[in-house]
Amino acid sequence: MSIGSARHAIAIYPGSFDPLTMGHMDVIGRAAAIFQRVLVAVVVNPQKREPLFTLDERKTMIAASIHDAELANVDVTDFRGLLADFVRAQNVDVIVKGLRFVSDFENEMSTALMNRSLSSVDTVFMPSDPRYSFISSSMVKEVFFLGGTIDEYVPLAVLRTMRDKRDGLR
Predict the structure, then answer these.
(1) Which residue in 2, 40, 101, 133 has its CB near the most CB atoms, within 10 A?
(2) Which CATH class, in words, describes the domain spanning 3-169?
(3) Is 100 a catalytic residue?
């Protein structure tokens, strides 16, 4: 795919987003600048541990964050099952994955090759902005629930939802 054709392509950015971080938003914004349309797809994976946020809460936080960032060509969806099947069903042209560390590449590369084998869709890897390379959803949750400040690591909509969740658990 050439850069010119990328501007007419549909990209999907899959993840659990439990919760969405500024690192995720960086990848979404950069993908939105390259591709005509970006689908942020929340993965429903019953084999992973129970997420802190419900599927609807995660989709709402992402949609609000995308709206606040004025990313008009980005939509939020969800899927169950194989990403390759969902990619084909949505006529997606490319999968986008963010990479924080070299170790991320090792795992993501095998997944990308399997997805390409199953769907003929390539994966584009975006290296993390160094400002966000250490941020993970699990780290954000841990710092937050232990009383730390996470304002610079998550969008405002996520911070509000996390505060509401914490206050509801008290």
Answers:
(1) 40
(2) alpha beta
(3) yes
